[in-house]
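Before a colleague's protein record goes any further, I have to sign it off. I want your independent view on whether this chain really folds as the tokens say. The record follows directly below this note.
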Amino acid sequence: MTQATPEDVLTVKDLKVVFHTYAGEVMALDGIDFTVGKREVLGLVGESGSGKSVTALTIEGLLPQNGEVVSGEIILAGNDLLKERKSELRISRLSDMAMVFQDPTTYLNPVLTVGSQITEIISSEAKLFTDDVIADRLRELQRLKEQGRLTLEQEKERTQLESLPPQPTLGKREFNRLSRLYAINILRQVRLPEPERIFKTYPFELSGGMRQRAMIAMALVRRPKLFLADEITTALDVTVQAQILKLLTELREQIDTSVILITHDLAVVAEVCDRVAVMYAGNIVEVAEVNELFRNPLHPYTKGLLASIPRPDSTGHELKSIRGSVPNLIFPPTGCRFHPRCDFAFERCPIEKPKLLEVSKGHFVACFLYGG
């Protein structure tokens, strides 16, 4: 098991999730453990069906009705989310967490402008945002002053804002005006061109990359402690994908957030992640710093994933693959769930489930080939 430290923003311990279906119970997560440090980008990688998205949905408290958390802890900023009441979890989701999904079209309201959807988030918990709205507006006015573009009216506004006490009670009209300015600043922060115009547009008027940036803006307007990104670059072309990934690394420093990046693309992991957790059939089989994982993969599944990546210098060679397929989790293999596909399995593997052990500093693996 990976050891939690006081610097960790998120700690997940022995998390088990079951889905109740007509065919039987699906053990989607079978006792996973991991941590996410402050300002860290943790990559969750693995094949489809390995449990990456279920992990994110469980952290957010968004499991479907047939999903059940059997055991475990999800500790975010010192609070166990699994013990919180619905009202408390709603506040945690609003103030401490944010999630962006693969297809922004599904989650953006087509009949509301982008700006109205962002300001709705601000208005839903006005007390959480009032100080941030004012602080952002003051920064914007200061920037204009330094550029020599501050008008007399804006100078008067700056003086008024500086004289306001913390958490002021603003009139509705004033708060709406500040919310609009704050939303436009967020749209500018995610590198959307002409943010004042984007504020007034509808989702269908934007390209796929711009919609994804708008979704990121809606998530970041909360200034969350933890940002979950679920396959956010999958549907984008390579150029836009690179822009989104660069934006992600910049924003985690600007708003002081930690990131869980869910992807099946190891090239994306190599580009932006600090550490990687490799998932297989509801288990985490290896955790390591990103350079260490690529340089020295230990688990047979991780080795198989890396060996299956096409390389420019491998022309004329047969592309390697992992034999077999992901198991049916209604009837999962006993012991190590990877053993039916593993070339190194021996008599212990089908009998006993390996634990995640630290074999070198910061490098954890769940395999009987290591640790005696």
Notes: The CA atoms of residues 133 and 182 lie 5 Å apart. The chain is about 40% helix and 20% strand.
